[in-house]
Amino acid sequence: MIRPFAGLREMPDVATIKMSDRIALWGFTALVGVLVAVDVFAAIRRIVTLVAGPPVTVELAWKAPVAHDDIEAVSTRTDITLAYLDPGERFWLVTEQVADSLAWILLGSCIAVLLVSVALRIPFSRRTPRLLAIGSVVAVFLAGIAVHAHIAAAQTIAHRLDIEVAFDVGIVRLLVLPIALLAIAYVIGSGTRIQRDTEGLV
Fold first, then answer.
1. Virtual CA dihedral for 46, 49, 50, 56, nearest 10 degrees?
2. Contacts 24+ apart (CB under 8 A), 74-80
3. Does residue 55 have a cis peptide bond before it, meaning omega lies within 30 degrees of 0?
4. Which of 6, 78, 160, 180 is the most exposed place for a label (fewest CB within 10 A)?
5. Angle at Cα 116 formed by Cα 112 and Cα 120, nearest 5°?
6. Burial (Cβ within 10 Å: 0-12, 13-18, ≥19) of residue 189
7. What dihedral do alpha carbons 48, 51, 53, 59 form, nearest 10°?
8. What residues contact 132, with CB distance under 8 A and at least 6 apart?
9. What angle do CA 17, 22, 24 make, to 5 degrees?
10. 73-109: pLDDT as tens digits
């Protein structure tokens, strides 16, 4: 006996995810967690070092001459070990570490939410795009504070040492990742709106 639409029951669910893809998603989630944890651990160590007192090594974008007999060269990034930190320099360096770590924690959390939701096949709620967008904007704000604090600390140290430093900003960390999350939030928001509009039509 031939049953109508029997073949449809044998077709795989379009929403299913292969086990290998699910393992990959969980692997990416774990990798994001490890990267954020390493960054936070390094920031905590750095803050403890700054609070405990000098000597403190600071990386500056400074064109320093390199001593060599045959080649004339300059170094564009130099590690300078300071035997003294005034309160202003210490404040800006600590602020840079705190703001930068908070920005990474926020971005990592947004990425982890996306990966875990896909891996568990959890439907995106109406608040998901809004939370991703807010998280991206706040991450950009925190990254901007970190950049401003780094520039302020570098200028203060350079003024005390009577040297000139260049303006150095990591565009990838400051803009690329937050903009990518904003784009993903827009796509998810458009999908949820289409789903709400088409509910009950079929």
1. -100
2. 76/166, 77/168, 80/157, 80/161
3. yes
4. 6
5. 175
6. middle
7. 70
8. 110, 113, 114, 181, 182, 184, 185, 188
9. 135
10. 555 677 788 888 888 889 999 999 999 899 888 888 8
Pairing of strands 56-60, 64-66: unpaired
Tell me which amino acid residue 1 is: M
Least confident range of 7-16, 53-62, 172-181: 7-16
Residue 70 has a pLDDT of: 59
Distance CA 117, CA 14 (A): 16
CA dihedral 54, 157, 103, 25 (to 10 degrees): -70
- The dihedral region occupied by 152, where left means phi > 0, alpha psi between -120 and 50, and beta the remainder, is alpha
Distance between CA atoms of residues 115 and 17, nearest Å:
13
User: What string of DSSP letters covers 81-141?
Assistant: EES---HHHHHHHHHHHHHHHHHHHHHHHHHHHHHHHHHTTPPP-THHHHHHHHHHHHHHH
